[in-house]
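Problem: given the chain below (173 residues), write out its structure.
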Amino acid sequence: MSVKEDPFSDRNAFYYARELYFYNQYPQAKSEFQRHLALPTATWAPERAASMRYLAKIDQDNAAQWLLMAIKQAPGRREALVELAQHHYDKQSWEGCYEHSKAALGIVEKPLDYLCEEFAWGELPWDLAALAAYNLGKYEEALELGKQALERNPSSERLLSNLAYYLSAAAAS
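Solution.
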């Protein structure tokens, strides 16, 4: 209703697009996220980047492009970098996974706004970097990154199991 009352409110456009996404109305959400990005008042970089990240989830064929745009839009944020690292992991593109997870880890200042998402600050970027390093033959680095991931989620059996692989590979190299 608020979007109908004020179609030029960028904040309401973003919220509405997000609601459409949460209700699995992806074609409408895609249109509304794109409309949000086109509004002249939509200038807050983290929110614009968030729209691009949602578009990457909706438009899988162009996910990497949307995520790269999100990274350029808000370069001091981890979320799009971690999502792009995950995208590369899913495609077993280890160089891309390594590059983007390490870039995410290079961002140490955690934003305090509502668009800062916990997945980017937990074990995931460490885990992705460790997996990529292992697959690139960087076993010592995989071991160190794996330890950092496990430190952030010590109850994860998978992370503990991966650490054993990294340790074995590092010892053999």
